[in-house]
Amino acid sequence: MKSRYLLLVVGLTLAHAIGAALAPVSGDEAYYWDCSRHLDWSYFDQPPLTIWLMIPFRFLFGETALAVRSPAILAGFLAGLILLPLVRRLGGTTRDAALVYLLLHAQPIFALGFSYTSTDVVMGTAYLGAIWAAVAVAQGHRGAWWGLGVTLGLGFLAKFSIIVAFLPAAVALLSPKARADLKTVTPWAAALVSAFLTTPVWIWGAQHNWDNIVFQLSGRHSPEGIGLKYLLEFIGANLLLASPILAVLVVGSCWPAWKREDPAWRVAVAGAVAPFLFFGLVALRMRVGAHWGGPGLMMMTVLLVLTGFGGPRIRKIGAIVGFSITGLVLSLWHAATGRSSSAATRPMGSRNWRASRVDLRGL
To answer: Parallel, antiparallel, or unpaired: how do β-strands 346-347 and 358-359 relate?
Structure first.
């Protein structure tokens, strides 16, 4: 069963790679690619991990769309690998993990996101790893503190919003076993490792008058008066990004999961709702990215499968609708990028996917 699960993850990863190789890059992706040609400790508006990850893939695949999108493809692959032990820790099976991974692909945010490089998708995979580690900590596995420290540190190098993972990490301390670990050196040493992993951001900041931190705190958005406009926009966008029926189901699954009163399940629920609580509050003052709830949607999908919320018939309908919307979104994306590619990129070679990679040297 485990081998079939790995075949599923590898197969969908290859599908992402083929789609990524065929579609021209976006402006944001081209920006990350250009940054990767100028290696630095960090960058003005983004931490460095996603940009750094492009470098070995550019060496392997050349200056192509596949190389630029490889960090996202890798993130999707690693998310699949993380889901299996996470689901098992919460009492699920390999079949449950496979269903979670399939349902993620029924949501446009992930079906497209695992083929489209952004700091969010890399951070989202680190977030998923942090929840896995926090669940293990709540269950009394002291060594999981190391995993929590590493995933939080790498997540910070991917995107600063990994800070929302501190809520589920704190909820893990509701477990007496986790609190007992605080009397040992392990969690504190893991915290030092986590802090050490973030040092490239602070080195760059010290070299550049802390412009990266100032920009995140005050320069990225201009706060407005308190209102519901951006909050409703954020909620509505996530209904579409997760597909409407699945969105309702995954949100609804949080309550039966919370009622289990198991510290590990409480961590999982906190991981599901933390991004929406944090960015929902921010949305009362300013516009937030519609996709910023993505890490929470991943965990909500885990809860949906494990709680069986809504019943099998409704879940099947939601999956069918989700896959239909996902197919439409992917078709529109490829059509739109295909029409806009001629001015920005040059195709290479023959018509087969391996030779039709986009050459970024023309940018």
So the answer is: antiparallel
Single-letter amino acid code for the residue at 20: A
Which positions ≥6 away from 223 have C-beta within 8 Å? Answer: 285, 286
pLDDT the model gives residue 348:
28
- Hey, what are 254's tokens? 């949080």
Two structure tokens written together for 116: 């489209």
pLDDT (tens digit per residue) in 235-271: 888 888 888 888 899 999 999 999 998 999 999 999 9
CA pair distance 113, 298, nearest whole angstrom: 12
Q: What residue spans define the domains of the chain?
A: 2-339
For 278-314, what is each residue's pLDDT tens digit?
999 989 988 888 888 999 999 999 999 999 998 888 8
211 contact partners, CB below 8 Å, separation of at least 6: 44, 205
Which whole number is the average pLDDT over 91-120? 94
Strands (E), 234-350: 346-347
Alpha-carbon 357 to chain mean position: 25
User: For the whole model, what pTM was predicted?
Assistant: 0.90
H/E run at residue 358:
strand 358-359
